[in-house]
Amino acid sequence: MQGNQKWQAFPTEALKPSGPWGNEAAAGRGGEAGLRRPGGAERSQRGRAMGAEAGSPRDTALGQQLRALFYALLPGESSFRTVEEVPNYVDKSIPFFITFIGLEFAVSWIQKRKLPGRINDGITSLSLGILSRLPDVLFRSIDLISYIYIWNNYRLLELPWDSPWTWYLTLLGVDFAYYCFHRISHEVNILWAAHQVHHSSEDYNLFTALRQSVLQKYTSWMFNLPMALFIPPSVFAVHLQFNLLYQFWIHTEVITKLGPLEWILNTPSHHRVHHGRNPYCIDKNYGGTLIIWDRIFGTFEAEDEKVVYGLTHPVNSFDPIMLQLRPLAHIWNTFWATPGFCNKLSVIFKGPGWGPGKPRLGLPEEIPVITGKEVPFNPPVPAYCNCYALVHFAIIVDLYTELLASVSMLSQGTVLLRIGFIILSLSSFGLLLENKSKAGILEIIRCLVFIGVYKLGYFRSQFSILGYAYEVLFSLCAAFWGIQIMKRITSFKDKHH
Hints:
Elements: H1 22-27, H2 40-49, H3 62-68, H4 89-92, H5 94-112, H6 119-133, H7 135-138, H8 142-154, H9 164-187, H10 189-199, H11 217-220, H12 233-249, H13 268-274, H14 292-297, H15 320-337, H16 341-349, H17 383-406, H18 412-433, H19 438-455, H20 467-495
């Protein structure tokens, strides 16, 4: 999804009363913590009818889960007394994500006789999605930790958790907070350095929705805190997920216009403009679910000429680590190269296009002109490299999913080892897709590391039947890359004799 909210599975751990903030969440069930309001048997009966029996996340029907993707659930079926009861809507939507991605490919092929994206860009988007999610394996969700803390200690009043008015007010509040942070993320250089990751793709498809920043979540949370003064955490937790889910399906080119809905909702057409690097697209259409904020505050722009996607100055890399860190390195270098203390602060806190003597957001005429001849970064690689990257990325997804499922039973050392290997793998895939010469050496190291730690029992597949197959595959791959490197060395020697 776009903007300040990261694409990630809504952390199940954040819905449980364990860990450093468990007392606050658990206290929300009643008593002095105040998520339960007095009201006798009638209130209790209504709570049970809405699935509000305290304890664990509520189950959702398949139809409800599908409608959650489009923010189409009613207050009566998505209101909960406590945070612990809030369903994990995002995790449960993963099958729909996969289904819609397949459907997008099919529709794009029927409409245009071409696929909506490229293998290298798609793997990079998914890699960035996984990378952005890894901190949540180690730490609790800062969104809910901070929100519950403010609610328990500083709330001014307590709106009823089961009122439709509270539900709709929270919809507006979460989306307005999203608009504010998303706009600031484009207008403050240090925040843009994190957010630009989401805009770095030169394709526009459902994979792009998953391309997210590791760092952005550590600043977005504070924009939600004013709601904690009066809106119960359980209501906020629902809408935080719905706002994220809605933004998945708008990352597509196969849907054109949606008629009258274009006036109120953020749509694929509006969001295509937001992802464009055409001059008319820059800093437009920040809304998450609603487009009304852009219309009110003058940042709306309708889709006009063909949109060219990506950054005005492309990073030209498929390495997820490079995509995350290069903008920060650029700010660091610019900071020290800019004279004057106030100018140095401006490098950090003014717009990414700012320079001494320029307006806060830079000069519009300095935005590169779109000619229509722009060619996406797409270095030629052998076909076997794309196949290799696909297969090994699927293995990493398997290992990553197993890590999420078993993290509570693993030692800290084992968790860190698995996270380290995942990061190493994602970075290696990026170099491989760029056809970098050092990718072969890195792959030998990676394959040998995998064989060693897998034999020692530190890695596990979700599917035990694949254990031996993985060992054989990684052994063959290590041998293959060894042969490739020997060939290059021999060829280099022959050229210099």
